[in-house]
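User: Sequence in, structure out. Go.
Assistant: Echoing your sequence, followed by the structure tokens.
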Amino acid sequence: MSLLGTIVSKILHPFGGGEAQAQTPAETSTTSTSAPTGGSDAASGGDVPKVDGKVDVEAVLNDLASKAGQPLNWRTSIVDLMKLLHLDSSLSARKELAQELHYTGDTNDSATMNVWLHKQVIKKLEENGGKVPDDLKD
């Protein structure tokens, strides 16, 4: 599974109820996805927070953050978001994600790339059935 697919799956299916099919920019216009419909994950018996039939991304990530044992600012930091999901947040991993998302900027300018990556991941979460907070939308 792609790194983006792993991120989307861990947030939109936090109890392992299924794998999200995260769309890359090239697939966005030709591939459609349906929003998750159930409120409970049969595999684990856990409830996935829903808003208007969509997974409440903020609730899922805030819940993970409350259990992280360290302060992680997932709202603005791609590094912290990846750490929260127990993913490799190294520069090389972020460059891999940037390549996957067709980043055209300088990957050696990590600050600019990180901001772009965070915005793209939030956008992809919304495109794949997540309800993201209004303040995180472009």
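User: And one key feature?
Assistant: The chain has one domain: 3-136.
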